[in-house]
């Protein structure tokens, strides 16, 4: 069941989203060659708790960290570790803030030092794909219009869209209805309505869209070892279109 959000709930989600956005902005300067992904996780947890919010991923279904740090061929849910970032890596940092019972969720991909032209193009296409999806997230459209817009754009650029991991409704639960696919035909699924809140979070691969799971049961990688990137925002549907609540003003 899709739960429409009250004005009070949206206000709290916006407050959480502002902190998530601020953390991502701060990570622009923090992410660099020579730091561990565990350092990033500690940075995220410290930033979120500084604002009296909780890093909601920590403990979620047993997940042990405050963030996911997904490097190069890792599609999503990468574990922070002692791995030291190298010049030329790309890394996606995914985080969720919980504020007075309401969630906000966002992932950004970052270049580590000087990256290859292919990697930079992947980041650019993935970020643009996110906004292509957001553009059609308007009242009266259907949920599948989002995925169709993303897939059409990404495949025209010669990349592929991951099928196994999707966007989702969000609010009092981290994951709610509706499911937001990033691929597929248009004009299907639930109608988009005012006060719906959900994430759009395309994962885009240089090679095949197929994924495999590491033995830890969380870390998803590209089947063919190609690079993967992801950008994600939480948005709320308003009379004036989608409002991104995890973006700096």
From TrEMBL:
Coiled coil: none annotated. Substrate binds at residues 77, 175. PANTHER family: METHIONINE AMINOPEPTIDASE (PTHR43330). Its EC number is 3.4.11.18. Keywords: Aminopeptidase, Hydrolase, Metal-binding, Protease. PROSITE patterns: MAP_1 (PS00680). This is Methionine aminopeptidase. One of its GO terms (biological process) is proteolysis. Removes the N-terminal methionine from nascent proteins. The N-terminal methionine is often cleaved when the second residue in the primary sequence is small and uncharged (Met-Ala-, Cys, Gly, Pro, Ser, Thr, or Val). Requires deformylation of the N(alpha)-formylated initiator methionine before it can be hydrolyzed. It comes from Alicyclobacillus acidoterrestris (strain ATCC 49025 / DSM 3922 / CIP 106132 / NCIMB 13137 / GD3B). Pfam families: Peptidase_M24. GO terms for cellular component: cytosol. A divalent metal cation 2 binds at residues 105, 168, 201, 232. InterPro entries: Creatinase/aminopeptidase-like, Pept_M24, Pept_M24_MAP, Pept_M24A_MAP1. SUPFAM superfamilies: Creatinase/aminopeptidase. It catalyses: Release of N-terminal amino acids, preferentially methionine, from peptides and arylamides. Belongs to the peptidase M24A family. Methionine aminopeptidase type 1 subfamily. Its cofactor is Co(2+); Zn(2+); Mn(2+); Fe(2+).
């Amino acid at each position: 069941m899709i739960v429409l959000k009250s004005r009070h709930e949206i206000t709290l989600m916006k407050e959480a989203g502002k902190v998530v956005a601020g953390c991502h902005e701060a990570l622009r300067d923090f992410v660099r060659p020579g730091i561990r992904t565990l350092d990033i996780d500690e940075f995220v947890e410290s930033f979120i708790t500084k604002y009296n919010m909780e890093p909601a991923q920590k403990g979620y279904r047993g997940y042990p960290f405050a963030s996911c740090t997904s490097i190069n061929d890792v599609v999503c849910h990468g574990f922070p570790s002692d791995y030291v970032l190298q010049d030329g890596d790309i890394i996606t940092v995914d985080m969720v803030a919980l504020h007075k019972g309401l969630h906000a969720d966002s992932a950004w991909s970052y270049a580590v030092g000087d990256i290859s032209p292919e990697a930079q193009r992947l980041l650019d296409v993935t970020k643009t794909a996110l906004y292509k999806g957001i553009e059609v997230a308007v009242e009266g459209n259907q949920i599948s219009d989002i995925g169709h817009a993303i897939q059409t754009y990404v495949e025209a650029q010669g990349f592929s869209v991951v099928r196994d991991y999707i966007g989702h409704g969000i609010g009092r639960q981290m994951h709610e209805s509706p499911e937001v696919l990033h691929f597929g035909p248009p004009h299907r699924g639930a109608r988009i309505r005012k006060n719906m809140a959900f994430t759009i979070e395309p994962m885009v691969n240089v090679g095949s869209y197929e994924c495999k799971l590491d033995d830890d049961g969380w870390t998803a990688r590209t089947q063919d070892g190609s690079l993967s990137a992801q950008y994600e925002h939480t948005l709320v549907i308003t009379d004036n279109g989608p409002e991104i609540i995890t973006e700096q003003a």
